[in-house]
Design goal:
Blueprint: E1 2-7, E2 10-15, H1 22-28, E3 47-50, E4 53-56, E5 69-71, H2 77-89, H3 99-112, H4 118-124, H5 136-157
Parallel strand pairs: 1-5
Antiparallel strand pairs: 1-2, 3-4, 3-5
């Protein structure tokens, strides 16, 4: 079957098998930030945005994104670079394997709730698996990033 969609703002038309998973389609099209971790929708490593909503690409058929806009971490360079620096500063990236999925979910959180409580952060990111850290560095990085963003917005209000 033929499919047309947008990946990170670029139109892509391709012939696919009906059972092709979105994770495989994206990796075949050079989106290597999308990682395979569990294939059971439990780890968050394969998170991408479909129409600006986070989805797990390991459990979505490519056919379901016909005509949709799909965004991977490669398509969010400014947001990823800004937030990623705070994660790295807190030592939360250790091996780095979980970072792309974690960052996609965190960016979705920031867009949905620009002033989350600690409990809301933990709840939103509960589906992200990191085997290296105890999530403390990620939490510190998120809080530092949000403090920076709120301070920057406060400067614009003055």
């Amino acid at each position: 079957m033929q499919i047309q969609l947008w990946i990170n703002g670029k139109t892509v038309t391709d012939d696919i098998d009906a059972d092709l998973l979105l994770i495989d389609f994206l990796r075949n099209h050079g989106c290597y930030s999308v990682k395979r971790g569990c294939d059971t929708s439990n780890c968050g490593l394969c998170t991408v945005f479909v129409e600006d909503r986070p989805v797990l690409s390991c459990s979505m058929l490519t056919a379901r994104v016909q005509g949709c806009h799909v965004t991977t971490l490669e398509g969010l360079p400014e947001e990823a670079e800004g937030f990623g620096a705070y994660i790295a500063d807190q030592g939360a990236e250790q091996c780095g394997f979980c970072n792309p999925g974690f960052m996609m979910n965190a960016i979705a959180l920031f867009r949905e709730n620009p002033d989350p409580t600690d409990e809301e952060i933990l709840e939103y990111l509960a589906g992200n698996l990191c085997r290296c850290s105890g999530y403390e560095g990620q939490m510190r990085g998120i809080k530092a990033y949000l403090a920076y963003k709120h301070g920057k917005e406060g400067e614009n209000d003055a």
